[in-house]
Specification:
The structure is a homodimer of 320-residue chains. Chain A is an alpha/beta fold and 320 residues long. Chain A has a single domain, classed as TIM Barrel (Alpha-Beta Barrel). Chain A is built from 13 helices and ten strands. The first copy, chain A, has helices at residues 14-20, 28-38, 63-68, 85-93, 109-116, 120-136, 160-176, 195-208, 225-234, 264-273, 282-296, 304-307, 310-319, and strands at residues 9-12, 45-51, 77-82, 101-106, 141-147, 151-152, 156-157, 183-188, 213-218, 239-242. In chain A, strands 3-2-1-10-9-8-5-4 form an eight-stranded parallel beta sheet. A two-stranded antiparallel sheet of chain A has the order 6-7. Chain A is globular, with a radius of gyration of 19 Å. Chains A and B meet through strand 7, helix 8, helix 9, helix 10 and helix 12 of A and strand 7, helix 9, helix 10, helix 11 and helix 13 of B.
C-alpha cells in the first residue's frame, strides 16, 4: 500500500449528471439551492449544468439561469459540460464558469457510432479543431478523457493496450498543436471495470506516461464504484470524479442500487477513515445528499447518507 | 496481488438475514420458494432461518415449516441460526439441517451489554458450556466468530490487537475443551470496516495464527462492502458471508443504499470478472435477487441485479 496518496481531489458531477436524467423538470431555484450547498462543503470543483439541446435533455433548458444563481466561493471552480461549439460558446457567455478545455475520445467505435455517428478515427481527426476553438478563446486545455476505457456495452472488452494506444494518439495530436496534456481521465462509462481492471489499465498507462496525472471516472452500474476507487488509491491515483448521493446517469433512477457515478460522500468517508485527506466536510456533504433526494423526489443510492459518519459517532461516544 | 485466491466460497445469509427484519409476515411458501431457488445456483452453504423467539422476530415463527419445505440438494448445506440452547435444539429436531457448532464472542462490551446483558468476560466464560452442548449432540465445532471486530456503534473503534487477543482466548478455551478451531469469522457487524482496516485486522490475526482459515462477514452499512471484500481477496481470504440482493439487517430497509450484508451477486460478479472461481451461476443468482425483491415487496440494494452480468452481454455481442 506504499503508493496510497496522502490526499486526493474530487470533481463533483452530481448536479449535472443527476438532474439531466430526471424526467420531471426540477425548478431552477432548487437546482441553484443544491449547487450552492455543495459550494460550502469544501469541494473545489463542481460541474453544475450541461449546455446541450433542451429537446434532448429537458432539465438542461435553464442552464444559463442556473449558472446566474451560483454564489461564487473563493477557490471553488464551478464548471459545465458541453458537447459541441455552440454549447461551449453558451458556457463561455455566462462569464461565471471556470472554463477548461478537454480532449475527448472513446475507446469504442460502436459506442461512438451509436451516439455521435462517427468513428474513433474521425473523432481523433476532429481534435485539432477543438484545440483551435479553445485557443481562439484563450481557454486552457490541460486534460484528456478516454470514455469506455474499461469496456463497452456495444462492443465488449477494451484492452489496456488499446487505452495506451489512444492516450498516445491523443497526446501526440495535442503536441502537434502545441498543447501538452497534463491529465488523463480514464472513464468507466458503462460500469465494466473491476478493481483488478483498474489496476491493469492505470498500470499500463502509467508505465508509458509516468508524468501524466490520472483521473478515474467510475460508474457504479454493477456496484464496483467504491472498490474500483480503492484500487485506484492503491495505484496512487489522486483525482476522482464522483456524484453526491450517487446521483446520475442511469435508466433505473429511483431504484435502490441503481447508479451513476461513484457516490461522493461514500468515497470521502472511505478516505477519511483511511487517513487520506479530501478537503471535504463529510457532514456537510451528507446534508447535501439528503437535499439531493429531496430535490429529485426519490431515494438515491448513497450509503453513508443513511449509515452516517463514524467521526460524528465517535464524537458522540466521547461526549457520553 | 500475489495473495489473491484462485477460488472462494460464499456462505449465503440472505434468507435468514433478509426475512427476519421485515415487518410484514412473509408467507412460508414464498420463503421456501426463495430458499429452493438459491439451492440451484451453486451456492454450497445457505443459512435459511433463525430459531429465535417469534415475539421478537415475527418472521421466524414458521422456521420449522420453512425447513420442512426445503428440497435437499446434494452438496448444499442448508443451515440455521440460533442464539441459545432452546434454539439449537429446535434446529436439531428438524433433522434436515446441516448442523455446525460455533463459538461466538463480541469485541465490544457495550454491544454485548446492550444485547445480551453480559460482559465479554462472561461470554468467554460461557463457551465451555456451549462446547459441552454441541459435544453432547455430536455436532462438530469448527469455527469461531468475533462480532464488532472492526468497531462498534456503542463503544467505538476496535484495535487489531483486541481482535487478536480475543481470538487467542477463544482458541485457548476451545483447546482446553479438546476443540481445535479451524476457522475464524471476522464480523463487521455495524459497518465500521474500510479496505485498509480489513487488511490490518486480517494481517494481525494471520500473523499470529497462520493456519487459521479466515472468513469475512461484511455489512454494507456505509457502502464499503464490496471494497472490503476486495481487500480481503488481496489478503488471500477465501471465505465470505454474503446476502443475495443485499438482503438484510438494516433499519432502513426499502430505501436505496440501505444495506445488510455485502450483496452476493455483486461479489460473485467481481470474482467472475477477476478470474476467481466461486462455483456460483451468476445468472441464476440474479434471478434469485429479482425473486427476493418480489418476495419482500420493495427494492433491495444489489447492483448487478440491475446492471446485469457482463458475461451475458459478451455472449450477446458475440452472437450479434
Amino acid at each position: 500500500m506504499s503508493d496510497m496518496p496522502k490526499s486526493i481531489r474530487i470533481r463533483e458531477e452530481g448536479p449535472r449528471e443527476g438532474f439531466q436524467i430526471e424526467k420531471n423538470f426540477i425548478s431552477t431555484e432548487r437546482k441553484i439551492e443544491f449547487i450552492n450547498a455543495l459550494g460550502k462543503t469544501g469541494l473545489h470543483h463542481i460541474q453544475t449544468v450541461s449546455f446541450v439541446d433542451p429537446r434532448r435533455v429537458p432539465n438542461s433548458a435553464d442552464a444559463e439561469a442556473v449558472v446566474a444563481g451560483i454564489i461564487p466561493v473563493p477557490g471553488v471552480h464551478f464548471t459545465a459540460l458541453w458537447l459541441n461549439d455552440k454549447g461551449f460558446e453558451r458556457a463561455l457567455a455566462t462569464k461565471k464558469l471556470h472554463m477548461e478545455g478537454g480532449l475527448n475520445v472513446s475507446a469504442s467505435d460502436a459506442f461512438l457510432k451509436r451516439n455521435q455517428n462517427r468513428t474513433v478515427a474521425e473523432q481523433l481527426a476532429s481534435l485539432p479543431a477543438s484545440i483551435a476553438l479553445y485557443k481562439k478563446h484563450n481557454v486552457p486545455i490541460e486534460g484528456g478523457l478516454i470514455s469506455a476505457a474499461f469496456g463497452c456495452n456495444f462492443q465488449g472488452d477494451v484492452t489496456p493496450a488499446r487505452v495506451v494506444d489512444l492516450a498516445t494518439q491523443m497526446i501526440d495530436i495535442g503536441a502537434g498543436e502545441g498543447v501538452t496534456l497534463k491529465r488523463l481521465n480514464l472513464a468507466d462509462t458503462m460500469g465494466w471495470a473491476t478493481p483488478m481492471g483498474v489496476k491493469r489499465v492505470v498500470g499500463a498507462v502509467r508505465e508509458k506516461f509516468p508524468a501524466l496525472e490520472l483521473c478515474l471516472h467510475l460508474h457504479d452500474t454493477r456496484g464496483m464504484g467504491v472498490a474500483n476507487a480503492f484500487a485506484g488509491l492503491e495505484m496512487g491515483v489522486s483525482l476522482y470524479d464522483a456524484a453526491c448521493a450517487g446521483l446520475g446517469g442511469c435508466p433505473f433512477a429511483g431504484h435502490a442500487g441503481a447508479a451513476g457515478n461513484v457516490c461522493t460522500e461514500d468515497l470521502v468517508f472511505m478516505c477519511d477513515e483511511m487517513g487520506i485527506e479530501t478537503g471535504v466536510n463529510l457532514q456537510a456533504l451528507i446534508e447535501c445528499a439528503a437535499l439531493a433526494e429531496d430535490v429529485v423526489g426519490h431515494p438515491l443510492p448513497g450509503s453513508v447518507m443513511r449509515g452516517g459518519s463514524l467521526k460524528r459517532l465517535r464524537e458522540k461516544l466521547q461526549a457520553a
